[in-house]
Amino acid sequence: EVQLVESGGGLVQPGGSLRLSCAASGFTFSNYWMSWVRQGPEKGLEWVANIREDGSEQYYVASVRGRFTISRDNAKNSLYLQMTSLRVEDTAVYYCATVKGCGTSTTCHWHYWGQGTLVTVSS
Amino acid sequence: EIVLTQSPGTLSLSPGERATLSCRASQSVSGSQLAWYQQKPGQAPSLLISGASGRATGIPDRFSGSGSGTDFTLTINRLEPEDFAVYYCQQYGSSPLTFGGGTKVEIK
Q1: Which residue of A53, A71, B18, B93 could cross-link A103, Cys pair, CB 3.0 to 4.6 Å?
Q2: How many C-beta atoms lie closer than 10 Å to residue B48's C-beta?
Q3: Residues of A in contact with B50 (CB under 8 A)
Q4: Helix or strand run (H / E) with residue B21
Q5: Cβ atoms of residues A119 and A94 within 8 Å
Q6: Is A116 helix (H, G, I), strand (E, B) or coil?
Q7: How far apart are CA B104 and CA A41, in angstroms?
Q8: CA A34 – CA A77 distance, rounded (Å)
Q9: Which residue in A61, A109, A115 is closest to B90 by CB distance?
């Protein structure tokens, strides 16, 4: 059974940092592109970042480029999202998800999703 | 940017009835690269349909997707109690990828 378990969310002040983790099991993690997708109260569902199977390429939505870094450790079956310079508008539930297919490197859709971790940016 | 408009916003139906959900795109969706997801309260979205009409693994055949170009439909035949949820469409053919605003299927 595919399982994706996110952790690391919480309350942070604007300008602060957080590191999200996603532990994967039940499938061959190193064979899949992975993504972070968020769901916020204002913007709804929004793709955040993608990473290739081997971690050699990363792609970001414009609003987080330069502030967020996606990475993975295939030996640990884990996906990460380092978030810095957080803004109020980054408040959302963050999901890690397995990519099922892509039209382009930044336009994918997702098969399996974790349960999400809530990030709240507020003073 | 392709804007996806889902209608109706809310659909009130009884178990056993058929649900017809619409997703209209502001421009043609390349290669019918459109997905449908189901989301229940407190849960993550779950993939139902990709490529406009291909059911994901384990999805019952009462769920079907159709359409091309700018008009897409998700049909749920014989609603089961577990089908009452919010449904989203998403296009992944053009950058930026976009989601519709969702249709809530509620028990009448």
Answers
A1: B93
A2: 22
A3: 100-101, 109
A4: strand B19-25
A5: yes
A6: coil
A7: 16
A8: 11
A9: A109
* Distance in angstroms (rounded) separating the CA atoms of residues A72 and A49: 12
Written as tens digits, the pLDDT of chain A (123 aa) is 999 999 999 999 999 999 999 999 999 999 999 999 999 988 889 999 999 999 999 999 999 999 999 999 999 999 999 999 999 999 999 999 999 999 888 899 999 999 999 999 999
Expressed in angstroms, the distance from the first to the final Cα of chain A is 40
Burial class (CB in 10 A: 0-12, 13-18, 19+), A25: exposed
Which of these, B21, B33, B45, lies nearest to B90 by C-alpha position?
B33
Token pair 């499938």 in the structure block, residue: A27
Please give the structure tokens belonging to residue A11: 């309350």
The whole-angstrom separation of Cα A6 and Cα A39 is: 14
Go through chain B and tell me how many residues it has.
108
Residues B45/B88, Cβ–Cβ less than 8 Å: yes
Tokens 């604007």 — which residue?
Answer: A14
Q: Where are the beta strands (DSSP E) in A33-91?
A: 34-40, 44-51, 58-60, 68-73, 78-83
Which residues on A lie below 8 Å from B93 (Cβ)? Answer: 103, 107
Measure A21 CA to nearest chain B CA, in Å: 16
